[in-house]
Amino acid sequence: MKIVLLGAPGAGKGTVAKLLTDYDGSVQISTGDILRAAVKEGNELGKEAKAYMDRGDLVPDSLIMKIMEARLQEDDCQSGFILDGFPRTIPQAEALRELLKRLDIRLDMAVNLDVPKDVILDRLTTRRTCSNPDCQAIYNIKSNPPTAEGTCKKCGAPVIQRDDETEKAIMNRLETYNEKTAPLISFYEKEGLLKNILSLNSAETVEEIKKYLAG
Q1: Which domains does the chain have, with CATH numbers?
Q2: Which of 4, 27, 80, 104 is the most buried (most CB within 10 A)?
């Protein structure tokens, strides 16, 4: 499969993407992952990205697209890929469209995970993250709690509520999403690629996507 996953922060894109990789061996690709990988490899693109990141600046779209182009041509993408949280803006979507055309790759669909705001708020305000930078395991105090002592079940480090997962921060993130990223829904609808799924349960969402893929 070759799909783009759209959805607000907390919509469950990462979880759905992981379940889809288990389904057919497609690889999950997020902008953060490929930027970190490029920096770690220390290639020319990675060095350029690191310079922006070290200054605290956003990596420009032109550089992200170069790194994305290199990533999509790696061997593990031949069986398929799931773009998790990318593109984020219309200019990125337009650049991706041109890139895929140049690489002779055709998207199967763009899936929008439609999740009510109250569900997103509940998911994110109850999320906790392992404070160990080498672990970063994710917990939920309702559905998947850490230990009773508030420590990670994997490594024993304390779990924390991230600064961007307080209710005020989440509302700001949703406003940013609605302003910059939500227009992608219309973009992919015009492209004839959009599938809109009410996503309250990740496993059920994956089954819906599988049905679309089966045609």
Answers
A1: 2-26+79-116+179-214 (3.40.50.300)
A2: 4
